């Protein structure tokens, strides 16, 4: 079956609407049913995604400011350890692990929560959301990784400048 053009889709939806009105809400038109579902749940899903993005950005900001408020104490610790023989490579490794744990433990929990929630939503609507949920969760993970790399670069640079 070929995909209907926009004009044909509008006619199908209009015909489905008329059938739905005249036949006491018996689902005769799949296109009209999908149109109604998209019209009802589209804004809800958009608001959910928008709220998720706001929380994501907020969490990233909290992580960033937490790292840089503790920076003076971290510099003091690493200066003390450098006197014992900490090398620049070891410093990078320790700082990398420290920042990775701080950045990726929340995103792992969020991804698991998202997978469970989107699976439940998929079963609720009886519609396979695997591709959509993979795109959303994957994009959040990629953004978190990029943010981690940027913050790690500047944080390591700051610590190295004060320690070595």
UniProtKB/TrEMBL annotation:
Record InterPro entries: ABC-4_Integral_Memb_Prot, ABC3_permease_C
Subcellular locations according to the entry: Cell membrane
ABC3 transporter permease C-terminal domain mapped to chain residues: 50-151
Keyword RNA-binding listed: no
Protein encoded by which gene: yxdM_1
Species annotation: Oceanobacillus picturae
Designated name of the protein: ABC transporter permease protein YxdM
Residue ranges crossing the lipid bilayer per the database entry: 44-67, 99-121, 133-155
Membrane topology: Multi-pass membrane protein
A GO CC term attached to the entry: plasma membrane
């Amino acid at each position: 079956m070929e995909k209907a053009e926009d004009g044909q889709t509008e006619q199908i939806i209009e015909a489905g609407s008329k059938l739905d009105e005249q036949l006491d809400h018996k689902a005769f038109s799949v296109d009209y049913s999908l149109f109604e579902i998209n019209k009802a749940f589209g804004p809800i899903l958009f608001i959910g995604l928008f709220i998720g993005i706001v929380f994501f950005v907020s969490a990233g900001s909290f992580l960033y400011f937490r790292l840089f408020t503790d920076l003076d104490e971290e510099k003091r610790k690493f200066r003390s350890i450098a006197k014992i023989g900490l090398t620049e490579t070891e410093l990078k490794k320790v700082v990398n692990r420290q920042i990775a744990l701080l950045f990726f433990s929340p995103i792992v929990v969020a991804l698991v929560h998202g997978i469970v929630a989107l699976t439940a939503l998929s079963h609720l609507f009886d519609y396979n959301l695997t591709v959509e949920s993979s795109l959303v969760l994957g994009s959040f993970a990629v953004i978190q990784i990029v943010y981690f790399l940027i913050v790690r670069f500047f944080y390591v640079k700051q610590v190295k400048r004060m320690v070595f």
